[in-house]
Amino acid sequence: MRIQIKEKQLFKDLIKQNFDFDININKINSICTDSRIIEKNDIFIPIKGKNIDGHKFIDDAIEKDASIIFSEKLFNNNRVINVNSTKEALKDLSAQWINFFKKPIIAITGSNGKTTTKEMVSKIFSSISQTNHTLGNYNSSIGLPVNLFNFSLNSEPIILEMGANNPGEIDYLCKIAKPDYSIITNIQNAHIGNFKSIQDLIKTKISIFKNTNTNGLIFENSDDIYLSNACKDFSNKIQFGFNNRKVDFFGSIKIINNKFNFYINGKEIENSNINEIMAKNMLAAYSIAHTYGINHEIIKDAFKRFNFLKGRGNHIYNKGYLIIDDSYNANFDSFKIGINSFLDIKCKGRKFLVIGDMKELGKETISYHSKLGEFINNQKIDFVCGIGENIHNTINVINNSQIYSKEFRDNKELVFFLKNQLKKDDAIYLKASRSMHFENIIEKL
User: Fold this and answer.
1) What is the tens place of the pLDDT at every residue in 260-307?
2) What is the pLDDT of residues 113-125, one digit of tens each?
3) Average pLDDT, the chain
4) 41-54: per-residue pLDDT in tens?
C-alpha cells in the first residue's frame, strides 16, 4: 500500500525527534510498504510477512530514490534508518502522530458492515466539516497506522475502521489510537478459522470497548446476543437495535407495495437502494452522529446522497434483468441476511443465486457451507449456481425439487450458463468471500 503524507513538515519533525538521522530531508511524498509501487521521495517501510520479507527489496527502494528507508537489517546507506522492528517502529510513530490531530477518535469494528458504517459516518460528518478518516478498508495492524499519515491538521473528528483477522489485533490498534467513541457493528463467525473459539473472537472484538476512554462512549448493538452478554458491565453505553423499542436508537422496517421503508426513532430515512443490511449499518452510523450532536435532517440528507460501496448490495440493471452485487465478502450470517433481502424484492421473472466459498472458517468450513445449503433449501429460489472449492458442501444439501442447483467448474462455464438462462425481468444475487473475485463474473454478464 502507498498513502500520501499530507502534513509533510510535521512528519519531518517526527523523524528528527525519534531517530539520529543525519541526512537532510528536503522532500517527502508518501509512505509505502510495497516496493513495486514506490516513487521518488517516498518513505519505504519493509514488512516481514508470512510469505515475503520486504527487506529483500530495499535495494529497489534505494534505486527508486526513496527519501527514507526503515530496516531491521544493517544497511550501509545514509537513507536507511535501522530499527529493531519495522512494524513496531510504524506503531510507535503512528501513535505519536495521531496525538497531533483534533479529537474525538471514533473507532468502528465488527464482523460485517464496518467499512460501510465507517463510510456512512464519514459522509455525515463531512456534511458539516472536513474529517480525518481511514481510506478504503485499510484496517489491519499495518493498514491502519499507515493510513493515519494521510490526515490533515485542520480536519476533525478522526474516524477509524479497525479489523480483527487475528487474536489481539483490536487491542494492538487501540494502543495506537485510543477511542473516545467505539462501536462494534456485530459479532459473527467471520474469520473464525483464525481464532480458537467464538469466545476468543468475542474477546478480541470487545477489547475496543475496554480501550475506550473512561469519559467516552461505547455503542452497543442490542440485537447481537454476543454483544448483549459482553456489555453488561459497561455503564457508559448507547444502545441501538431493531428488536427492543427501549433502546436509545430504535430502527424499524416496513415493506409497503414492494417499497422498503426505514425509520429511526419513528423518523423516516431514505435511500434509493436501501435494504435490510444497509438499514443496520445506517442505524449504527446514525447512533454515533446523533449522539455527537448532528441533527436528524443533516444525517437524513447524508444518507439520501450515500452511494453504496461496490459489492455491498448494489443494484445493477442489465439487459432487462436485475443484478444485485453483494460480492464484497461473505459469512453464514451475512449470507442469510442478504438472501432474505433478495427474496423480499418482487420481480416478474425468476430468481437466481450465484454463491461462492466462504473463507477463513477453519475447521468449521464444511459445517457452515452445509448449513448454508440447508437454509437455501427452504427458500423460494429458482436457480442456485455454485462455484469454489467448498461450495459442493452447499449444493449437495439442496434437494428441493423446486430449485435447480448446480456446481460449476469455473467462471467461464458459469457465465455461459447464466447468459443462456437470464431473461428480461429476472433477478440475480451474487455473494462470496472477497478472494473469489465475483466482480469478474458480473463484468461478463
Assistant:
1) 899 999 999 999 888 888 999 999 999 999 999 999 999 999 999 998
2) 999 999 999 999 9
3) 93
4) 999 999 998 888 99
Measuring CA to CA, which residue among 104, 117, 99 is closest to residue 180? 104
Cell numbers that stand for 166 in this block = 487475528
CA pair distance 99, 357, nearest whole angstrom: 41
Looking at the DSSP bridge assignments, the partners of residue 404 are: 383
pLDDT, residue 190, reads 65
How many helices (H) and strands (E) would you count in the chain?
A: 15, 20
Mean pLDDT of the 67-87 span: 93
Residues whose CB falls within 8 Å of the CB of residue 328, separated by 6 or more in sequence, listed in order: 309, 310, 311, 312, 434
Q: Find, among 312, 289, 314, the residue nearest to 300 by Cα.
A: 289
Q: Which residue(s) pair with 181 in the sheet?
A: 106, 217
Q: Which residues of 336-365 are buried (b: 16+ CB within 10 A; e: fewer)?
A: ebbbebbeebeeebbbbbbbbbbbbbeebb
Nearest to 73 by CA among 51, 58, 92, 89: 58
Identify whether the C-beta of residue 112 lies closer than 8 Å to the C-beta of residue 186.
yes
Q: pLDDT class for 93, splitting at 50, 70, 90?
A: very high
How many C-beta atoms surround the C-beta of residue 237 within 10 A?
16
Q: Is the per-residue pLDDT at 416 higher than 80?
A: yes
Residues with Cβ within 8 Å of 85's Cβ and at least 6 positions away in sequence, in order, are 72
Strands 105-109 and 181-184: parallel
Q: Cell 460528518 identifies what position?
A: 125
Nearest in space to 411 (alpha carbons), one of 370, 441, 383 = 441
Q: Quick one: DSSP state of residue 53?
A: B
Question: Length of the chain, please?
Answer: 445
> 65: left (phi > 0), else alpha (psi -120 to 50), else beta?
left
Name the pLDDT band for 191 (thresholds 50, 70, 90): low
Report how far residue 282's alpha carbon sits from residue 285's, in angstroms, rounded to the nearest whole number: 5
182 touches 37 (CB < 8 A): no
